[in-house]
Amino acid sequence: MTKVYEGKVAHLAINQLSLEVEKGEFIAVMGPSGSGKTTLLNIISTIDIPTSGDILINGTNPLHLAKNDLSLFRRRQLGFVFQDFNLLPALTVEENMVLPLTLDGQPVELMKEKVREIAEHLDLTAILEKRPSEISGGQAQRTAIGRALIHEPAIILADEPTGNLDSKAAKDVLEILTRVNQVSQTTIIMVTHDPIAASYCDRVLFIKDGEFFNEIYKDDRRQTFFQRILNVLSLLGGNVNDLSTIRLS
């Protein structure tokens, strides 16, 4: 696919990029700022449309769907996790989590059962009645993950999900995403700047100037995979000066 943003000066955000993701794969997308990572995620999520090229999700091209069908497709097939959580401040943790089911008109009993089940897995049971302003960043991101999972989407799209978290909360979030990926076979596509976060994935795709740069697959040891990620990042350039001093906990 290719994506050009028109303006006084046209900006080529994605240039002839082809990508296949297997069902149940956990993939990280990395690259310098402005390399097209978020644009790629926005196109996969149907928030943006490519200038040329197509997108197929489980054999469906969402770009060919009517507006209402596209909303339904997005709501049922995709789950979103963002860096800044995107929780609604007026709603409780429980209400935020159950939002996709509320929009879908699901029965109240089913919603309660789903919340109970997911809250247990994500260690949120004790804070279900609290509002986003009353909980920590880690709890807010776990709530956002709960909201992304509650309707059992085919794909979770995560944009810098650990970007606003301390290292302990980030580790918790990455372990939850790994567990969801392994247990439910949910496909996860995660944009990240963090080589530690990327080392949890099955594969890391590197892009530069909107084009494919490299990709590497995980091996038996996370430490060596992490080192290989650092090696590619140093070739890629960008803000990686201090990365060689990072060690995995």
| Uncertain stretches of 5 or more adjacent residues | 240-246
Q: Major sheet, described briefly? A: 6 strands, mixed
Measured distance between first and last alpha carbons:
38 Å
**Neighbour order of strands in the largest sheet:** 4-5-6-3-7-8
Mean pLDDT reading: 90
Radius of gyration: 18 Å
What fraction strand? 15-25%
Output the CATH class name: Alpha Beta
Judged by helices, strands and strand pairing, the structural class is alpha/beta
Provide the domain count: 1
Number of strands: 8
Order of helices and strands: EEEHHEHHHEHEHEEH
CATH superfamily: P-loop containing nucleotide triphosphate hydrolases
The shape is globular
The CATH topology comes to Rossmann fold
Tally the helices. 8
Helicity level? 25-40%
How would you describe this protein?
The strands form two sheets. Strands 4-5-6-3-7-8 form a six-stranded mixed beta sheet, with helices on both faces. A two-stranded antiparallel ribbon has the order 1-2. The longest helix has 18 residues, at 167-184. It has eight helices and eight strands, in the order βββααβαααβαβαββα. It has 249 residues and is of the alpha/beta class. The protein has a single domain (3-24, 33-193), classed as P-loop containing nucleotide triphosphate hydrolases (Rossmann fold). It has helices at residues 37-44, 67-77, 93-103, 108-121, 137-149, 167-184, 195-198, 222-236, and strands at 3-5, 11-14, 26-30, 78-82, 155-159, 187-191, 203-208, 211-217. A hairpin with a 5-residue loop joins strand 1 (3-5) and strand 2.
